[in-house]
Design a protein that fits this description.
The protein is an alpha/beta fold. Helices cover 51% and strands 17% of the residues. The chain contains seven helices and five strands. The chain has helices at residues 11-14, 34-49, 73-83, 95-98, 102-113, 137-166, 171-189, and strands at residues 17-27, 53-64, 89-92, 120-123, 128-129. Strands 2-1-3-4-5 form a five-stranded mixed β-sheet, with helices on both faces. The radius of gyration is 23 Å and the shape is elongated. The two termini are 46 Å apart.
Amino acid sequence: MTTPEKALDDESYKQITRVAFYDRNRVTKDTPISVIELQNALFHKLLKEHPEWEKVGIYRDIDEFGVAPGNRMEFDRLVSDCNKGLIDLVVVKTISKFSRNVMECIDKVSSFRSMDPPVGIYFVNENIDTRKPEKLAPFINMYAMMEEAEKRNRSIKEPVNTRYSSGTYNSKVLKRKSRMRRRRGIRGRK
């Protein structure tokens, strides 16, 4: 994983931590406003539980359902404020609110940890705090699984791409080989 190890010591947890809350919601015209109110209530509850946290703000992106995603102006503002050194920790309810896929999440965690000073991310539902190196294991595991899946995809696609590029792709031959493999498998089980 490309995340630089800039672990914070235990003393940094006792200091005042400037906290920003990030939330991304997908809404329709029928989505009740209570969804956003619940998020706000969660953030305020967390602030009460952590007296060492100083609230910087809530950054919330709203994606309209059916509209192409990509309006992440609040996330961009969050990153800008982190780069300015205004935020020490970003709190997010769940990983899916932070990014759209595993690779994007890993890249973002890595970029926040490489800022100067490093910015931690705390995922509430998963109880993952990226300021603690021992809590990074899930990200390391996800990264390893994604790399393994990518290797498998390449090994599967390579022969097909080679056949197509050489012009020798013959679906009848492949179907015949597939039938032969299935027959062997059925006979082998008897």
